Amino acid sequence: MSTYIDNLNWRYATKKFDKDRKISDNDMATLTEALSLSASSYGLQPYKVLVLTDPELRARLQPAAWGQAQITEASHLIVLANQTTFGDELIDDYLSNVSMTRGIPPEALKGYGEMMKSKLLPLSDPEKAAWTSRQAYIALGNLLSAAADLKIDACPMEGFDPQQFNTILDLEKENLNAAVLVALGYRSEEDQTQHYKKVRRPIENLITYL
């Protein structure tokens, strides 16, 4: 069995963290780079990643996450915040980056930009928000796998009030919405869920070859 599969079997949604163990700066740099390398539709990355370490800020957020201990006990709290709407600027900024990074004249990218705009800009704001949220969830999956590879524990969390998070973190002024949280750190020896056998559907009931 590969080390990658071993690590995925090792990981679980950690319920109780060792609040005295902190993730090193080097490991956090690896995790944030993994986030930046996540796949996204058209490569647009229509979201922002907030890394929260301030204890006072996280204590303010905890009631908006149903008082869950992971919010304050984990080493780091990640907020993946999707853009609630966008216009030409999302695509134009991306194409400018492509042009600079790959040395391609901007005019050579015009057709590609027009294609993206024809697909994305006619969407309603709710449709745009749903699409950007899905892109944030792709990044979530990459983060969980990268953390497991480093033997860093993680707990993805949807159990929170996005509106309260948006208010406390002042996200709405940037057209952002807290889509999903990830608590990162190291499991406590007292967390009994680490000993539970992993439960998944049998592969033959999940995977179909056609």
From TrEMBL:
Gene3D superfamilies named among the record's database cross-references: NADH Oxidase
Pfam families on file: Nitroreductase
Protein known as: Nitroreductase
Entries under InterPro entries matching the protein: NfsB-like, Nitroreductase, Nitroreductase-like
The organism's place on the tree of life at top rank: Bacteria
Cofactor entry: FMN
Domain Nitroreductase intervals: 9-186
